[in-house]
Design goal:
5-stranded mixed sheet, 5 strands, 12% strand, elongated, ion transport, ATP binding, transport
Length: 306
């Protein structure tokens, strides 16, 4: 059995660790509150953006804008959203594992290249030899749509230059503080099916019912009168919607990261508390054993003298 001095040193060490994890839990909880608020606030706008675009796409004869044209897939650009730091549970490993499965299951004739957001995903992709064409590490915690404009413009530009035939984003959906779901979504070319699935997964059950009711009201064909260049207008809407989708995915990932870190640090604090209790019990037993032994030695000495 370890000495009481050594056990006291371990107890002190675990208490210091618990203080750190508790502080990190509180910081993550504060950041999560802001991130979740931003995520929920933008979902409604993402929904209405989708409704506007699909209504126009459904009620116009033909759309020839490049962002709507699906091509034979030979080159795929995948945006991987992870964190710069660890200590956030399975947040990074889940989305990275989903990307690795996609790379493994994809047709060998299809070339997949990566844009990494966050150091964790970037390190894994470079380690396995996957080509990373760009990396973004310095995005702020309270991300705004202005911060993702360079990324969205890069994606649209690469697709329009025919360098890639499809653009995917791997991110983590925020469902609740305890549940986050890794997802891979197609953002370019603009797919009405993909956009509908995206809004369905982002909204709550009641929001889905409201959306279904709204969509049922919009079943009547609407005749649109375009002033100016119709293709330019639709192209501008498509680019804005693509930007909104990417922004929403960043918000979802940020909320998922902070909630995962909060839960991980909460579990670490609880584990530290249990370890302190166990060590305190061991310490008390060791101290009691020492006291008993000393009493026995004193009694034996008195018996030998008498």
């Amino acid at each position: 059995m370890a000495s009481t001095k050594e056990i006291k040193r371990r107890i002190k060490s675990v208490k210091n660790t618990k203080k750190i994890t508790k502080a990190m839990e509180l910081v993550a909880a504060s950041k999560m509150k802001r991130a979740v608020s931003s995520t929920l606030a933008s979902r409604l706008y993402a929904e209405y953006s989708w409704e506007v675009l699909t209504s126009i796409a459904k009620n116009t004869e033909k759309i020839t804008h490049p962002l709507f044209i699906e091509r034979e897939v030979k080159n795929v650009l995948l945006v991987l959203i992870t964190s710069n730091r660890g200590l956030c549970g399975a947040y990074n490993s889940q989305v990275i594992k989903k990307v690795l499965h996609l790379i493994k299951d994809e047709n060998k004739d299809v070339n997949i290249e990566i844009i990494s957001i966050g150091k964790k995903g970037d390190n894994v992709m470079r380690r396995i030899g996957q080509k990373v064409i760009a990396s973004f590490f310095e995005l702020p915690n309270n991300i705004s749509i202005r911060d993702i404009v360079p990324i969205s413009e890069l994606l649209i530009k690469e697709f329009n230059l025919l360098n890639y035939d499809k653009v995917l984003v791997a991110y983590t959906d925020f469902i609740s503080a305890l549940t986050q779901k890794p997802n891979i979504k197609q953002v370019i070319p603009v797919s009405k099916t993909e956009l509908k699935e995206l809004i369905d997964t982002l909204g709550s059950h009641s929001e889905k019912e409201d959306k279904e009711r709204k969509i049922s009201k919009n079943e009547v064909k609407t005749d649109y009168l375009f002033e100016g260049d119709q293709e330019a207008l639709i192209g501008s809407l498509a680019e804005k919607l693509t930007r909104i989708q990417i922004y929403q995915m960043f918000l979802e990932s940020n909320a998922s990261e902070q909630s995962s870190r909060m839960v991980a640090m909460k579990n670490a604090s609880e584990a530290a508390g249990e370890m302190i209790d166990d060590l305190t019990l061991v310490f008390n037993k060791a101290r009691q054993s020492n006291i008993t032994r000393e009493i026995s030695e004193i009694s034996a000495g008195m018996a030998s003298v008498s």
